[in-house]
Design brief:
CATH superfamily of one domain: 2-enoyl-CoA Hydratase, Chain A, domain 1
Distance between the termini: 29 Å
Structural class: alpha/beta
Strand content: 5-15%
Number of helices: 9
CATH class of one domain: Alpha Beta
Length: about 260
Protein backbone atom coordinates (compact mmCIF):
# COMPACT_ATOMS: atom_id res chain seq x y z
CA UNK A 1 0.00 0.00 0.00
CA UNK A 2 1.24 3.49 -0.81
CA UNK A 3 2.60 5.80 1.86
CA UNK A 4 1.43 9.29 0.76
CA UNK A 5 2.83 11.00 3.86
CA UNK A 6 6.41 9.97 3.18
CA UNK A 7 8.51 12.77 1.67
CA UNK A 8 11.79 10.86 1.37
CA UNK A 9 12.50 9.12 -1.94
CA UNK A 10 11.60 5.48 -2.43
CA UNK A 11 14.80 5.09 -4.47
CA UNK A 12 17.93 6.74 -3.12
CA UNK A 13 20.52 7.90 -5.66
CA UNK A 14 24.15 8.44 -4.73
CA UNK A 15 27.41 8.64 -6.68
CA UNK A 16 30.85 7.75 -5.38
CA UNK A 17 34.18 7.10 -7.09
CA UNK A 18 32.63 6.94 -10.56
CA UNK A 19 29.71 4.67 -9.69
CA UNK A 20 26.02 5.42 -9.12
CA UNK A 21 24.11 3.53 -6.43
CA UNK A 22 20.34 3.07 -6.64
CA UNK A 23 18.97 1.85 -3.30
CA UNK A 24 15.39 0.60 -3.02
CA UNK A 25 14.17 2.13 0.24
CA UNK A 26 10.42 1.69 0.60
CA UNK A 27 10.14 -0.44 3.75
CA UNK A 28 6.41 0.10 4.32
CA UNK A 29 5.61 -2.17 1.35
CA UNK A 30 8.77 -4.31 1.22
CA UNK A 31 10.15 -2.34 -1.71
CA UNK A 32 7.17 -3.28 -3.86
CA UNK A 33 6.96 -1.89 -7.39
CA UNK A 34 4.49 0.92 -6.83
CA UNK A 35 3.95 3.58 -9.49
CA UNK A 36 6.23 5.88 -7.51
CA UNK A 37 8.96 3.23 -7.19
CA UNK A 38 8.88 2.56 -10.94
CA UNK A 39 9.10 6.27 -11.72
CA UNK A 40 12.00 6.92 -9.35
CA UNK A 41 13.92 3.91 -10.62
CA UNK A 42 13.51 5.08 -14.21
CA UNK A 43 14.64 8.61 -13.34
CA UNK A 44 17.67 7.22 -11.49
CA UNK A 45 18.72 5.23 -14.55
CA UNK A 46 18.26 8.28 -16.76
CA UNK A 47 20.44 10.34 -14.42
CA UNK A 48 23.18 7.71 -14.45
CA UNK A 49 22.99 7.40 -18.24
CA UNK A 50 23.49 11.14 -18.75
CA UNK A 51 26.37 11.47 -16.27
CA UNK A 52 29.72 10.96 -18.07
CA UNK A 53 31.39 10.46 -14.69
CA UNK A 54 29.38 7.32 -13.93
CA UNK A 55 31.10 4.12 -15.05
CA UNK A 56 28.48 1.63 -13.76
CA UNK A 57 25.32 1.41 -11.65
CA UNK A 58 24.84 -0.58 -8.44
CA UNK A 59 21.27 -1.65 -7.62
CA UNK A 60 20.68 -2.62 -4.00
CA UNK A 61 18.15 -2.32 -1.17
CA UNK A 62 17.51 -1.60 2.47
CA UNK A 63 15.76 -4.05 4.80
CA UNK A 64 15.21 -7.78 4.50
CA UNK A 65 13.42 -7.66 1.15
CA UNK A 66 15.02 -6.62 -2.11
CA UNK A 67 11.67 -6.32 -3.90
CA UNK A 68 8.30 -7.96 -3.19
CA UNK A 69 7.00 -7.54 -6.75
CA UNK A 70 4.06 -5.41 -7.83
CA UNK A 71 2.40 -3.28 -5.17
CA UNK A 72 -0.87 -5.22 -5.00
CA UNK A 73 -2.20 -2.82 -2.36
CA UNK A 74 -2.37 0.17 -4.72
CA UNK A 75 -6.02 1.11 -5.02
CA UNK A 76 -7.73 0.87 -8.40
CA UNK A 77 -11.34 0.79 -9.58
CA UNK A 78 -10.28 -1.06 -12.73
CA UNK A 79 -7.69 -3.81 -12.05
CA UNK A 80 -7.19 -4.61 -15.73
CA UNK A 81 -6.60 -0.97 -16.67
CA UNK A 82 -4.27 -0.44 -13.72
CA UNK A 83 -2.37 -3.60 -14.64
CA UNK A 84 -2.01 -2.40 -18.23
CA UNK A 85 -0.53 0.92 -17.09
CA UNK A 86 1.80 -0.76 -14.59
CA UNK A 87 2.87 -3.22 -17.27
CA UNK A 88 3.72 -0.38 -19.67
CA UNK A 89 5.81 1.29 -16.97
CA UNK A 90 7.55 -1.97 -16.01
CA UNK A 91 8.31 -2.78 -19.65
CA UNK A 92 9.88 0.66 -20.12
CA UNK A 93 11.89 0.27 -16.92
CA UNK A 94 13.29 -3.16 -17.78
CA UNK A 95 14.17 -1.93 -21.24
CA UNK A 96 15.96 1.06 -19.71
CA UNK A 97 18.10 -1.33 -17.65
CA UNK A 98 19.09 -3.24 -20.78
CA UNK A 99 19.67 -0.17 -22.93
CA UNK A 100 21.74 1.66 -20.33
CA UNK A 101 25.24 1.82 -21.90
CA UNK A 102 26.78 1.05 -18.52
CA UNK A 103 26.87 -2.18 -16.51
CA UNK A 104 24.27 -2.68 -13.79
CA UNK A 105 25.43 -4.70 -10.78
CA UNK A 106 22.75 -6.07 -8.46
CA UNK A 107 23.56 -6.53 -4.77
CA UNK A 108 20.94 -8.61 -2.98
CA UNK A 109 20.75 -9.90 0.56
CA UNK A 110 17.04 -10.37 1.08
CA UNK A 111 13.84 -11.72 -0.44
CA UNK A 112 13.04 -11.36 -4.15
CA UNK A 113 9.56 -12.11 -5.38
CA UNK A 114 7.59 -11.83 -8.64
CA UNK A 115 8.38 -8.51 -10.36
CA UNK A 116 11.54 -8.18 -8.30
CA UNK A 117 12.83 -11.16 -10.26
CA UNK A 118 12.51 -9.06 -13.40
CA UNK A 119 14.87 -6.49 -11.92
CA UNK A 120 17.36 -9.23 -11.05
CA UNK A 121 17.17 -10.58 -14.58
CA UNK A 122 17.76 -7.10 -16.01
CA UNK A 123 21.05 -6.67 -14.11
CA UNK A 124 24.26 -7.59 -15.92
CA UNK A 125 25.99 -8.99 -12.82
CA UNK A 126 24.22 -10.11 -9.63
CA UNK A 127 25.79 -10.83 -6.25
CA UNK A 128 23.58 -12.48 -3.62
CA UNK A 129 24.14 -12.75 0.11
CA UNK A 130 23.13 -15.61 2.43
CA UNK A 131 19.74 -14.09 3.35
CA UNK A 132 18.59 -14.01 -0.27
CA UNK A 133 15.58 -16.03 -1.38
CA UNK A 134 13.86 -16.03 -4.76
CA UNK A 135 10.42 -17.02 -6.10
CA UNK A 136 8.18 -16.44 -9.11
CA UNK A 137 4.96 -16.32 -7.12
CA UNK A 138 2.58 -15.11 -9.86
CA UNK A 139 1.28 -18.61 -10.55
CA UNK A 140 -0.07 -18.82 -6.99
CA UNK A 141 -2.18 -15.69 -7.54
CA UNK A 142 -3.84 -16.71 -10.80
CA UNK A 143 -1.30 -14.68 -12.77
CA UNK A 144 1.79 -15.35 -14.89
CA UNK A 145 5.24 -13.77 -14.96
CA UNK A 146 4.37 -12.04 -18.22
CA UNK A 147 6.63 -9.04 -18.86
CA UNK A 148 9.36 -10.08 -16.45
CA UNK A 149 9.77 -13.31 -18.42
CA UNK A 150 11.61 -11.17 -20.98
CA UNK A 151 14.51 -10.65 -18.58
CA UNK A 152 14.21 -13.78 -16.42
CA UNK A 153 13.89 -16.53 -19.04
CA UNK A 154 17.18 -15.69 -20.81
CA UNK A 155 18.99 -16.22 -17.50
CA UNK A 156 17.57 -19.66 -16.69
CA UNK A 157 18.03 -23.12 -18.08
CA UNK A 158 14.86 -24.48 -19.67
CA UNK A 159 14.39 -27.08 -16.95
CA UNK A 160 14.81 -24.49 -14.19
CA UNK A 161 12.33 -22.18 -15.92
CA UNK A 162 9.80 -25.00 -16.16
CA UNK A 163 10.17 -25.79 -12.48
CA UNK A 164 10.11 -22.33 -10.94
CA UNK A 165 7.62 -20.63 -13.28
CA UNK A 166 5.15 -23.47 -12.70
CA UNK A 167 5.59 -24.22 -8.98
CA UNK A 168 6.23 -20.73 -7.58
CA UNK A 169 8.48 -22.39 -5.01
CA UNK A 170 11.19 -20.54 -3.13
CA UNK A 171 14.91 -21.16 -3.62
CA UNK A 172 18.11 -19.78 -2.15
CA UNK A 173 21.27 -18.13 -3.47
CA UNK A 174 23.19 -21.33 -4.23
CA UNK A 175 20.36 -22.61 -6.43
CA UNK A 176 20.06 -19.14 -8.02
CA UNK A 177 23.70 -19.39 -9.07
CA UNK A 178 23.30 -22.97 -10.30
CA UNK A 179 20.40 -22.10 -12.62
CA UNK A 180 21.96 -18.87 -13.93
CA UNK A 181 19.81 -16.20 -12.27
CA UNK A 182 22.63 -14.96 -10.03
CA UNK A 183 26.31 -14.52 -10.90
CA UNK A 184 27.76 -15.40 -7.50
CA UNK A 185 26.72 -15.95 -3.89
CA UNK A 186 28.86 -14.81 -0.98
CA UNK A 187 28.72 -14.14 2.74
CA UNK A 188 29.91 -10.58 2.06
CA UNK A 189 27.98 -9.29 -0.97
CA UNK A 190 28.98 -5.64 -0.57
CA UNK A 191 32.66 -6.53 -0.20
CA UNK A 192 32.47 -8.72 -3.28
CA UNK A 193 30.82 -5.95 -5.26
CA UNK A 194 33.56 -3.52 -4.28
CA UNK A 195 36.05 -5.95 -5.86
CA UNK A 196 33.94 -6.10 -9.02
CA UNK A 197 33.72 -2.31 -9.17
CA UNK A 198 37.51 -2.12 -8.92
CA UNK A 199 37.70 -4.37 -11.98
CA UNK A 200 35.12 -2.26 -13.85
CA UNK A 201 37.05 0.91 -13.07
CA UNK A 202 39.91 -0.48 -15.17
CA UNK A 203 37.67 -0.90 -18.21
CA UNK A 204 37.05 1.56 -21.04
CA UNK A 205 33.60 3.22 -21.05
CA UNK A 206 33.32 2.47 -24.76
CA UNK A 207 34.42 -1.11 -24.21
CA UNK A 208 31.84 -1.57 -21.47
CA UNK A 209 29.04 -0.04 -23.55
CA UNK A 210 29.76 -2.13 -26.64
CA UNK A 211 30.28 -5.31 -24.65
CA UNK A 212 26.97 -4.78 -22.86
CA UNK A 213 25.26 -4.25 -26.21
CA UNK A 214 26.46 -7.69 -27.30
CA UNK A 215 24.95 -9.42 -24.26
CA UNK A 216 21.61 -7.57 -24.33
CA UNK A 217 20.82 -7.30 -28.05
CA UNK A 218 18.94 -10.60 -28.25
CA UNK A 219 16.88 -9.87 -25.16
CA UNK A 220 16.00 -6.45 -26.56
CA UNK A 221 14.94 -8.12 -29.81
CA UNK A 222 12.50 -10.24 -27.77
CA UNK A 223 11.10 -7.03 -26.25
CA UNK A 224 10.30 -5.82 -29.76
CA UNK A 225 8.79 -9.16 -30.71
CA UNK A 226 6.79 -10.15 -27.63
CA UNK A 227 6.18 -7.17 -25.31
CA UNK A 228 2.77 -6.20 -26.75
CA UNK A 229 1.50 -9.78 -26.52
CA UNK A 230 2.80 -10.17 -22.97
CA UNK A 231 1.34 -6.83 -21.89
CA UNK A 232 -2.06 -7.92 -23.20
CA UNK A 233 -1.73 -11.20 -21.31
CA UNK A 234 -0.90 -9.36 -18.08
CA UNK A 235 -3.90 -7.02 -18.37
CA UNK A 236 -6.23 -9.91 -19.21
CA UNK A 237 -5.08 -11.97 -16.25
CA UNK A 238 -5.26 -9.12 -13.71
CA UNK A 239 -8.86 -8.50 -14.75
CA UNK A 240 -9.87 -12.15 -14.47
CA UNK A 241 -12.05 -13.56 -11.67
CA UNK A 242 -9.36 -16.05 -10.71
CA UNK A 243 -6.66 -13.40 -10.32
CA UNK A 244 -8.99 -11.11 -8.38
CA UNK A 245 -9.61 -14.01 -5.99
CA UNK A 246 -5.88 -14.76 -5.79
CA UNK A 247 -4.86 -11.17 -5.07
CA UNK A 248 -7.72 -10.70 -2.60
CA UNK A 249 -6.74 -13.87 -0.76
CA UNK A 250 -3.13 -12.68 -0.65
CA UNK A 251 -4.11 -9.31 0.81
CA UNK A 252 -6.44 -10.98 3.32
CA UNK A 253 -3.74 -13.52 4.21
CA UNK A 254 -5.91 -16.53 3.46
CA UNK A 255 -5.75 -19.43 1.05
CA UNK A 256 -7.37 -18.85 -2.37
CA UNK A 257 -10.45 -20.84 -3.27
CA UNK A 258 -8.59 -23.21 -5.58
CA UNK A 259 -5.91 -24.22 -3.06
CA UNK A 260 -6.27 -27.74 -1.71
CA UNK A 261 -7.37 -27.88 1.90
Amino acid sequence: MADPERSEPYVRYKTSRGFAKLTLDSPHNRNALSARMLDELRRGLDTAASDPGVRAVVLTHTGGTFCAGADLGEASDNPAEAAAERTREMTALLRAFLELPKPVVGVIDGHVRAGGMGLVGACDIVVAGPRSTFALTEVKLGLAASIISLTVLPRLSQRAAGRYFLTGERFGPEEAVAIGLVTMETDDPHGTVNELLADLSECSPQGLAESKRLITMRTLADFDRYSDELAAQSARLFGSEEAIEGVTAFLQRRRPSWARK
